[in-house]
Amino acid sequence: MNSAFFDRLRKGIASEVFANVTRIIIQVGGVPLFLAFWGPAGYGEWLLLTAILGYLRLSSVGFGQATRNQMAMDVSAGDRDRALRYFQSTSVLFLFIGLVVLAGLSLASTAAPSLHHVFSFELLSPDGLRHALLILGIVIAINLQVDLLDAGFRCEGHYGLSTFLIMFSDLVTFGLVVIVMMAGGDQVMGVACYLFGAVFRFACLRLTLYRLVPWLDFGIPKSSLRTIRTLALPSLAFMAFPFGQAMGLQGSLIVIGAVLGPSAVVIFNTVRMLSRYTVQLTVAFARLGSPEIAYAYGRGDMSLVRQVHWQVCRFGFWAAFLACGFLAIATPWILALWTSGQVPASPDMYLTLLAAVCIWAGHTLVALVLQATNNHQRFALVFLTLGIAGLLLTIPLARSHGLPGVAFAGLMVEIALLVYVLPRAARFGGGKVGAFLRHVLTPPSPMTLRLLVAKTIG
């Protein structure tokens, strides 16, 4: 049994457990608190602000994820000098992107009165919206560098520690927002808490990384435009995933807010949040499997790439399937208790959302092997195209069928993605679709993971 792999896996699982507990605390505890202190209208406005933050975070995802994968493959192949070139080059790029985002939001803040009218804000004033946009710009600039620090942790196998530090900072930030709400603060003060959290997160990761991986340092000596160019294609492709996903997540909230109003945003977001708790299980398995696939691919061990991918899909699919089955039965009772009856449980909506989440888990896990090895360009184009199509479909369905129509549009997108990616990813590394499906649809056992650990070589 390989001790290095087992140690990484043990720490990674522990960090993912902590991450999921933290997300549950934030999401489950947040809804009743926001409703109690800010009311449905104020909470809806907060969701719209955080939706803007979600869109702005997309500015780094492409190069951040491509750099993570490339650095992991380089270090696995024994080329730390090349990994440092990617680290420093991406750092300079992120500094430039951060300044552009900050300048863009500064310009957008001058149109705050118009934005205030478009989104029908009731509690947040135009001046408050202007200040919130400026603060969000600074938060994005800092988080860009945090994404790069995460790549530094992952390339040396410390992905579990990175996840822990990031989620701990999120917990601290949430605690500050709660304190602000209880003290009578508004949404602008809540956004200011996000700024403190970003600074705290950066400091924690930077100090820890300096101690664990001293050869990784910020600077410009090894940065070059040529290095950035080598990541351009996979990076642009990676950006298609969050943009496409944002069409269904943040984009659908904005459509609902414009068509049905802020109160409908609260209802849909709360029910979808509950249905997407299973997403955290899928993300946990993907975060554990992605660096291990990159390490194996960097060494040229395609057999191990296939083994890790298939096992991740197997465990992740069954975890998501069982969780969705539980929520299909328990959602009405959970919502009644969780929101004190303020959010109704529409079976048409929540069952459709659960089906969409289950299909989402399938294509996300299947496509992991393409994304972890920077071989995802074609799938990314399809993902973005279907995301745009789904958002366009959401508009008429929201008008004609309300919130269940929005949920149905999302389900159609997830099914189309799974149909496209399944045959392509299953064959990656020499596998066959039939064998892949038989493997994944067979319930896993602890022995499965034990055999995988025994076969891992690094």
Radius of gyration: 22 Å
Q: List the total number of helices.
A: 17
Percent range for β-strand residues: under 5%
Largest sheet: none
Tally of domains: 1
Look at the helices and sheets and give the structural class.
Answer: mainly alpha
Q: What are the secondary-structure elements, in order, as H or E? A: HHHHHHHHHHHHHHHHH
Task: Give a written overview of the molecule.
The structure is a single chain. The chain is mainly alpha-helical. The chain has one domain. The protein is 85% helix and 0% strand. The protein has 17 helices and no strands. The termini are close together.
Summarize the structure.
The protein has 458 residues and is an all-alpha fold.
In terms of topology, how is this protein built?
Elements: H1 3-56, H2 58-76, H3 80-109, H4 112-118, H5 126-155, H6 159-182, H7 187-212, H8 225-248, H9 250-259, H10 262-275, H11 277-298, H12 302-338, H13 347-366, H14 368-372, H15 377-426, H16 433-440, H17 446-455
Helix pairs in contact: 1-6, 1-9, 1-10, 1-11, 2-3, 2-5, 2-8, 2-11, 3-5, 4-5, 5-6, 5-7, 6-7, 8-9, 8-15, 9-10, 9-15, 10-13, 11-12, 11-13, 12-13, 12-17, 13-15
